[in-house]
């Protein structure tokens, strides 16, 4: 019996050896990912009505066309221009705003527009941990499947924080970035911060002309070390100012600024020149295209865009997804997180990363237009924004106009943290201002700026796209170049599970190799060694078990050998 | 032995059930004590219930009938902020909102659930909401004053929702029958400090309903409770002090500075600074020892010799 076993193992060993030799002759096949296996999202968000793109008038507010695929809700714009106190209940219900979110009253200078502006902001958490289920709530994706924890200043809303009770997706008003605020020189502005968050916060009005301390409301600079105590959860504070100078400015939380700013508590605030009948779009929710620009901007420009660049560190934003207990979150953020060891992982433009920037942060232009771009860098590092196909003129630094004769044209715009630049982009095809029509990229030229968690294509990349290069759904027309952007609208792409070059040629020459057939070399060797051992063991067993037999047979053999000898003798 | 154990068990059971009973009793007692002076909407709403046909009214002049009380917001020190004079009022079958966003949604004053023949009782419950109620639950940020309310099946319940913070809070109930309540929801919302009241009629079967504030992370950070109808249904998880979290954080002891650390540190410092003195002391003691030893030698000698001579 053991002899049969011995022979069987020997045969198996030989077969294995043969197979191994065979495998090393041919490398594994390429495995192509079937597009059907991907969770492909529609490139254009189907929840947003295409009717929102059209030029329209709501509540007497003229709203410019915005041909991109996810334009702002026109009701938001009407509410922001008229104030939530001057619109019908029907329009208000379409906004989701609280009826006291934007209160506009009193034409103090008699020039036809309201000059007392009250803006109510709440602080909302996005993608935070739940003690009820594994997952985050309310969700806000900056790119497919990418849900960094974030805090935002949000316009005061009414009702739920999610779309509805069945959904975990955030109410559209709760989003990155914090909204762009627009007020006029001379307006008496109250920003009322209602701290709905579980941590203390404040507002610092960076660059906006504001008194250090206000006679009625006290400290007004938002700094807990100089002017005021932190605003605790459940409390309300009024920041009041009457700006004397226009410009593109910045507002942010100044409590534990090194983390709170990066978490998203940062937004653009624009002080516009005082002009008659200047009904401003007080909030530009989600930033981007300004569909009801100010009188001064309309006099000089055809279009206006707010471009808010931001960056987040994965290790920081994950803290609110690690714990539910606010004490543990506070401990990790305040005492354990080391900002000097931080690296930024998520780069956003207007709160989103590529490919979602294509949905709502395209700069859609026509030839021979003058476009005003307001840029803010609220990230922690210097950025270098490059406009493909265009040189733009820097007209303002940090809200202050640069001497008009000294203004310069560039195609890379470096911006320090907190810096603002106003650019004049002219789509004149003269080889300098513009090289002609196209779908021209606009991106941070530090190469990591076009990555999401270190993987391209992502980051704050967007496009300056001429309408002739825009398709019916408001996305850049690229299919005639044989380009398919669908792969970017899958979460598998950003999970690093999609071999991004597999479709560049028919043979998928740069696709993903299949795994080793059978066992790999290392296990093969150890398996062989184990078999050797087994064989030796069996041999020893056989020898010892059949000792007598062997002896006998040996003796027999010897005698046999001897006997012929003997017989010979 | 067995007898004593049984008596102890019995005694324990009696005290336990007594406290449970007491807890249940406090609720109706509190309703009686509830102060209506600030907001007499409950009378209003009951009035509305009697002389109001809810099946077909689309009028938008609510000042006379809808139960939000505008008079008390002059009490708020921030009333100047609302100095617009424009009042929004919105009402359809189940949605009432004023110019400050105070909201009543899914109110039901008179529609009986199919499982009820009549209203079993009329109850008023005051629910207070605010940051200060989170103090008794470490690791939370916002809370209601109570985490559980109990009513009989088919009760008509009026909730007086008192928001004591200076921000928005909600009293949002889920899981109600959808043929009576849109999305199965009843929802009160108000920016504090202010009160809003609303009424529902609970179903006739035993059930437990989720109550929470849906402002981002208010429920997750403590503002969660349940309404128990009759004997109740399945408990709802992660209600502070009532039910455990589904997912728990892990805690570790931290190296926090303590007063006793300081005392230890002082002792160490003293040891180091008095090192030389100590040494002197030690040497001194050694010297004394040597002297004593020397003095004692003759004594030992004597003893030893005596022993030998013996």
CATH-defined fold name of the domain at 97-348 in chain A: Immunoglobulin-like
> What structural class do you assign from the helix and strand content of chain B?
alpha+beta
Q: What is the oligomeric state here?
A: heterodimer
Rg of chain A (CA only): 34 Å
Helix content of chain A: 10-25%
**Largest sheet of chain B at a glance?**
8 strands, mixed
- Spans where pLDDT lies below 50 across 5 or more residues of chain A: none
Give the N-to-C terminal Cα separation of chain A. Answer: 41 Å
Number of strands of chain A: 31
What proportion strand of chain A? Answer: 15-25%
Uncertain stretches of 5 or more adjacent residues of chain B: 9-87
Give the N-terminus to C-terminus distance of chain B in angstroms: 69 Å
Characterize the biggest β-sheet of chain A.
8 strands, mixed
The succession of helices and strands of chain B, N to C, reads HHEEEEEEEEEEEEHH
Overall residue-averaged pLDDT value of chain B: 76
Describe the protein's architecture and organization.
The complex is a heterodimer of chains A (569) and B (310). Chain A is an alpha+beta fold. The model of chain A has no long low-confidence stretch (mean pLDDT 93). By secondary structure, chain B is of the alpha+beta class. Chain B folds into 2 domains: 10-51 and 60-74 and 87-229, Cupredoxins -  blue copper proteins (Immunoglobulin-like), CATH 2.60.40; 259-309. In chain B, the strands form 2 sheets. Chain B has an 8-stranded mixed sheet with strand order 1-2-3-9-8-11-12-6, with no helix packed on it. A 4-stranded mixed sheet of chain B has the order 5-4-7-10, with helices on one face. In chain B, a hairpin with a 2-residue loop joins β1 (90-92) and β2 (95-97). The radius of gyration of chain B is 35 Å and the shape is rod-shaped. The two termini of chain B are 69 Å apart. Classes of the chains: A alpha+beta (569), B alpha+beta (310).
